[in-house]
Design goal:
By secondary structure, the protein is of the alpha/beta class. The chain folds into two domains: 173 residues, Rossmann fold (3-Layer(aba) Sandwich), CATH 3.40.50; 81 residues, Alpha-Beta Plaits (2-Layer Sandwich), CATH 3.30.70.20. The strands form three sheets. Strands 2-1-3-4-5 form a five-stranded parallel beta sheet, with helices on both faces. A two-stranded antiparallel ribbon has the order 6-9. A hairpin with a 2-residue loop joins strand 7 and strand 8. The chain binds flavin mononucleotide and iron/sulfur cluster (SF4) (2 copies). One iron/sulfur cluster binds next to helix 8.
Length: 265
């Protein structure tokens, strides 16, 4: 990586990717980089500064990622001059089938110089949620790998990132499947329901939903379906545990109260 002014654009549902982005920023800063971290849900992709190095971070979802992330990547301007460096990272519960590299290559085809791509194991926030002591260990282990990834961005010139045919094929299939997201198929399966007797009508879920998919009507939140990413943020961070889904019995929070404020507000 030659340009040490770095802008990291991340999307996070429950906080893992925010923590990974923060760790990368912290490591790069210790090597005298100037790093700014942005929540991509609040940014117009057309406004990114192409004179800086760009980092893109997202959670793996169905071995691919959420529509909000794909829309952001697709909307990034073509890099006609071909000098803007980009690195891509994903956080995953088990496997991403090289989603970061695949999205990296999409950016390469848009003219960006791909300087790094990797996936990092983090606690799973979907269905297979584990106990917090296991999650802490998993995050600690991952931070070490994230640090190495960030150091390598500084220390080495861009190495060509290659993906074999198997992972390319997987990506084509998972892209096809996750493009169905907008037909609300996944939302119908997961289906969030409000337990009115538990809800304190605090409105937090509507405030933190990244896609304004929750509206407050008659003081209670209403869950629309069309913009839901199934990012798990509302169900995980509701202080009353008032949001339910027949499929999701356990929820996961990566962030402390302080990190929560920094990340979402
Ligand atoms: C809808 C959904 C689908 C997921 N799909 C995958 C997957 O295909 N592979 C995987 O390893 N983890 C998967 N996960 C787990 C997340 O990728 C993982 O926990 C991630 O670190 C969450 O990041 P976040 O806290 O920034 O939202 C999925 C999570 C959700 C909510
Ligand atoms: S965050 Fe929970 S308690 Fe607050 S309004 Fe939403 S569902 Fe109700
Ligand atoms: S409704 Fe909940 S799960 Fe869906 S996008 Fe909003 S915060 Fe995420």
């Amino acid at each position: 990586m030659k340009n040490t002014i770095v802008d990291i654009y991340f999307f996070t549902g429950t906080g893992n990717t925010f923590l990974a982005a923060s760790k990368i920023a912290q490591t790069l800063e210790s090597y005298n980089c100037k790093v700014t971290v942005f929540d991509m849900a609040k940014i117009d992709a057309k406004s990114v500064n192409l004179s800086h190095t760009i980092g893109i971070g997202f959670p793996t979802a169905f071995w691919n990622t959420y529509p909000i992330v794909k829309d952001f990547i697709n909307a990034l301007p073509n890099n006609i001059v071909g000098t803007t460096e980009v690195f891509v990272f994903t956080t995953m519960g088990n496997s991403s089938l090289k989603a970061a590299s695949n999205f990296g290559l999409i950016l390469k085809s848009k003219g960006y110089k791909l300087v790094g791509a990797n996936g990092f194991l983090m606690p799973n926030n979907f269905i297979a949620v584990q106990k917090e002591n296991k999650n802490i260990k998993k995050r600690e282990k991952s931070y070490k790998q994230i640090e190495i990834f960030a150091k390598n961005l500084i220390n080495t010139d861009a190495k060509p990132i290659k993906i074999n045919l198997f992972f390319k094929l997987c990506f084509t299939i998972t892209s096809f499947i996750t493009d169905r997201w907008k037909s609300n198929l996944f939302q119908k399966i997961v289906k969030f329901k409000l337990k009115e007797n538990k809800c304190s009508r605090c409105g937090l879920c509507a405030q933190i939903c990244p896609t304004k998919n929750i509206v407050i009507k008659g003081n209670y939140p209403i869950f629309k379906a069309q913009n839901c990413q199934i990012c798990m943020r509302c169900i995980s961070y509701c202080p009353q545990k008032a949001i339910k889904s027949f499929l999701l019995r356990k929820t996961y929070r990566a962030l402390t109260d302080q990190e929560f404020k920094k990340c979402f507000f």
